[in-house]
Amino acid sequence: MREEAMNTVDLDQRHVWHPFSQEQTAPAPLPVARAKGASLYLEDGQELLDLASSWWVNVHGHCHPAIAEALAGQARTLAHVIFAGFTHAPAAQLAQALVRALPRPLNRVFYSDNGSTAVEAALKMAFQSWRNRGERRRTLFLAFEGAYHGDTFGAMSVGRSSGFYAPFEDVLLKVRFLPFAETWQGDKNVEQREAAALAALDAILKRDGHRLAGFIAEPLVQGASGMRLCRPEFLRAVCERVAAHNVPVILDEVMTGFGRTGTLFALEQAGVVPDIVCLSKGLTGGFLPLAATVATSAVYETFLGQDFSTAFAHGHSYTANPLGCAAALASLALFESEGTLARIAAIRQANMRWLDEAATLPGVTRPRALGSIAAVNLGPEGNGGGDYHSSLGPKLKARCLELGLLVRPLGNVVYLMPPACITPEELARAHGLTLQVLRETAHLYAPA
After folding, report:
1. How far apart are CA 341 and CA 141, in angstroms?
2. DSSP 429-446
3. Most buried of 10, 186, 217, 395 (most Cβ within 10 A)?
4. Torsion over CA of 15, 17, 18 and 20, rounded to 10 degrees?
């Protein structure tokens, strides 16, 4: 068959290599023709309710007209320009908007293109900042067990305990890992786990505090390891101990930022002001790749000097792309004009009712919710979740697709994270159908 005559899926399977997929055994990809609001529409006309916000990037709904108009207008004026030695209004205005939204003294915005590179830039900033001050002992990083921060080498290093990076173990940075005191509804032992984690942290700081270049954490929720939640007071206690040892705090808000946890940024709930924060995913409302690493003046000023040796020699061809910046400005404006955080609060209330019912099903454990996120574990109570070798995920995903739902389980964890535009009727349908799937497949995960 001539390639010109092939359909989308045939062409894809001949040439495309998909992310996070075992290409030999994965089912054929679904061809998406268009999207609107909370729904995707396949080429055959089937509608799928997007309950994963298309890998957690979609905030206000697919193809939101306000962002589309801002993007089209910018495309007619300036699509791209080198950002070394040049600037443009969308980048400057977005930097101002981000600084105003974040707590002081976070006030220097470094642009890149995705979450991994935002994290990579943050780790390099923290490390080089010490070198620029003549401190060469600080060669270690501190991170939580189970963390996921992306797939570039520095990001893999601080996320190695997520289980994704076994082939690269020999070439990753040196990292000390701290227990993550996860919790859920009805959890009666969270204080003991927190105390144990803090005791482990104290031991690490006593032994290696003088060697730590930085501490990085996903605030309040570890996404890829199974939507594992911690209490704000636990995160705050960790950050306070770390800061007391003069170790820079990096908060990875790539997934948690822009309303996902119920506030614009998760750090607001913990009352933590980091030295560096990483932003991406929802930054442009799901329209274009864009990321920002925002640092304090104290970090920024260590890179100033009379020659290039102390400069931050890092960048990307599409740094501060004007189209992405214009989309991000439009997305931020929607938080006020559409009351996005109030919409997310309403989603949480509906999710809580879903969790109450799901928790009554056999084998469903650890119900939890934060912002627009709701999650449950499937299987024995002792299984902490995020088991990517579990056979449950693909089966549940396939059944949900049959019912018109895009649900992407994280191993044995089923979670819902819809865009803020989802209507009460759509959410009710999603809740009803996912409960149906859990009931249908209870024999797969209920304890023997």
Report:
1. 34
2. HHHHHHHHHHHHTHHHHS
3. 217
4. 160
State both tokens at 166: 């076994």
Distances (CA, A) of 297 to 94, 107, 253, 280, 301: 18, 6, 19, 21, 6
Each residue of 241-260: pLDDT tens digit?
Answer: 999 999 999 999 999 999 99
Task: Give the CA-trace dihedral at 390, 55, 321, 93, to 10 degrees.
Answer: -130
**Cα gap 416→426, rounded to integer Å:** 13
Q: How many helices (H) and strands (E) does the chain have?
A: 15, 16
For residues 180 and 144, give the distance between their C-alpha atoms in angstroms, rounded to a whole number. 6
CA atoms of 50 and 39, how far apart (whole Å): 5
Residue 245 identity = H
Q: Using only C-alpha atoms, what is the Rg of the chain?
A: 22
For the segment 6-53, what is each residue's pLDDT rounded down to a tens digit? 899 999 999 999 999 999 999 999 999 999 999 999 999 999 999 999
DSSP track, 139-207:
-EEEEETT----SSHHHHHHTGGGSS-GGGGGGSPPEEEE----B-TT-S-HHHHHHHHHHHHHHHHHH
Question: 78 in helix, strand or coil?
Answer: coil
Task: Report the CATH fold assignment for 68-336.
Answer: Aspartate Aminotransferase; domain 2 (3.40.640)
3-state secondary structure of 357: helix
Domain residue spans in the chain?
31-60+339-445, 68-336
What's the pTM value of the predicted model, to 2 decimals? 0.96
Q: Which CATH superfamily is domain 31-60+339-445 in?
A: Aspartate Aminotransferase, domain 1 (3.90.1150.10)
227 contacts 413 by C-beta, under 8 angstroms: yes
Q: Answer whether 31-60+339-445 and 68-336 agree in fold.
A: no
Rounded CA-CA distance 194/237 in Å is: 10
HEC assignment per residue over 385-405: CCCCCCCHHHHHHHHHHHCCE
- Cβ neighbour number for residue 419 with a 10 Å cutoff: 30
| Rounded Cα gap, residues 201 and 172, in angstroms | 22
Question: What is the rounded CA–CA span in Å between residue 62 and residue 50?
Answer: 9
Residue 285, CB-side half-sphere exposure with 13 Å CA sphere:
29
Pairing type for strands 39-42 and 47-50 reads: antiparallel
